[in-house]
Amino acid sequence: MMKQLKTLLIAGLLFFGASQVNAQSKIAHIDVQDLLAKMPDMVSAKAQIKTLSDKFDTQYKAMVEEYQTKMKKYESEAPTAGDALNETRGKEMQDMGQRIQQFRDSAQKQLSDKEMELVKPIMERAKTAVVKVGKAKGFQYVVDASTLILADGPDIMEDVKKELATPAPKK
Length: 171
Hints:
This protein is mainly alpha-helical. Helices cover 79% and strands 5% of the residues.
């Protein structure tokens, strides 16, 4: 009996302590993806990335089309072309295929690098604004609402948008 009472008392203290911690912790949320998507800098960055992607895509398609045209021509002429010419053409097509693959790989890397170059500072600016607003409002935690099942606390989206709209101080 005494042991059960002691266990009940400890459980009650733990529950009370946990509820005190929760009551003292101030938590807010913000949908980071939504914030980033609405930032004018991000819209501009995405447009630049799309322009570059479209340019690479056009070049890639032209290279593939040229490859396919040559391949059809060489295949139709192969029976009458002779072994030496067919071997030379085969090597040419193999080299051309490798150049296309290298172009595709290079284009993907350049796109990835450009995206990182453009997006990283925007993400840093958004993070700085979230931290600044969170601290100014007295929150101990600000969590990303896009991953929450229940986001019942304060949403600081509007405050962060205002912070981002404020020009940075000149150095």
